[in-house]
Structure formats: C-alpha cells, structure tokens
C-alpha cells in the first residue's frame, strides 16, 4: 500500500492553483471537472509520478470549520520537505509569501511555517 493522493482544503481552487504552481513551483497533474468544482491535483516537479496534492474545495461546512480552526490555532495542515530551508524561505519571501514562523531549529530538523493564502498554514522542513 502506498499514499497516492493527499488533500488539503482550499477556499478557492483557482487561487490555490496559482499559489501552489506559480509561487511554490508544483506542477499541475489533473484538472478534471467534477460537478461545481474540479479534481485538481499537483505534483512535485522532480517526482511527477509521485504523490499528488489534491486542492479540495472547503465547501462542506465541516471542512470549512476544520480549516478555520486549524488556522486560528496556528496548526499547519501539511508539511513539504526542502533541501535548503533558508534558501527556500528567502525565495518565498521574495515572492511575497507571509511566514508565521521563520526557519527554526527543532533538534535535528529546521522548520518554517507560511500562509498559503487559501486558508491554510503550511510547514516546510529540512531534515
């Protein structure tokens, strides 16, 4: 068994697609109409056959509440790995990304947290 899709709730699929592709650098894999919304996934550019990130609409009241409460409590919804967190942090800051936590050493790892502009906090980690 392997993980093939990981979803995060977003408040606007188009805005999320722009942020995750143009700012973060992920590559669109699927964009399929699905009723009022879309099955919209992205992948890492260097692992295009790897795990897909589903930008899932937060249209359901429970999804919206879950997303809002995690954000309010400062809890990231997912984590992305980077090889050089300070370099990635600087690149994202230059693109206007707002960080709620600058790169911080936590034992053997360094983490940082940013706002994805779509209702979520995202953590990056250098192991």
UniProtKB/TrEMBL annotation:
Domain VOC residues, every copy: 1-127
Domain of life: Bacteria
GO terms, molecular function: lyase activity
UniProt keyword Lyase present: yes
Keyword terms: Lyase
Alphabetized Pfam families for the sequence: Glyoxalase
Gene3D superfamilies documented for this protein: 2,3-Dihydroxybiphenyl 1,2-Dioxygenase, domain 1 (3.10.180.10)
Residues in the signal sequence: none
InterPro entries (UniProt xref): Glyas_Bleomycin-R_OHBP_Dase, Glyas_Fos-R_dOase_dom, VOC_core
Transmembrane segments: none
PANTHER family cross-referenced by the UniProt entry: GLYOXALASE/BLEOMYCIN RESISTANCE PROTEIN/DIOXYGENASE, GLYOXALASE_BLEOMYCIN RESISTANCE PROTEIN_DIOXYGENASE
Record-given protein name: Lactoylglutathione lyase
Organism the protein comes from: Halobacillus karajensis
């Amino acid at each position: 068994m392997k993980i093939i899709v990981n979803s995060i709730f977003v408040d606007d699929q188009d805005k999320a697609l722009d942020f995750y592709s143009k700012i973060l650098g992920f590559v669109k894999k699927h964009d399929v109409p699905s009723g009022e919304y879309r099955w919209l996934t992205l992948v890492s550019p260097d692992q295009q056959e790897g795990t897909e990130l589903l930008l899932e609409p937060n249209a359901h009241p429970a999804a919206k509440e879950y997303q809002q409460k995690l954000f309010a409590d400062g809890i990231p919804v997912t984590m992305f790995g980077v090889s050089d967190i300070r370099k990635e942090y600087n690149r994202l800051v230059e693109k206007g990304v707002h960080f709620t936590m600058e790169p911080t050493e936590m034992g053997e790892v360094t983490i940082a947290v940013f706002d994805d502009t779509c209702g979520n906090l995202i953590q990056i980690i250098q192991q």
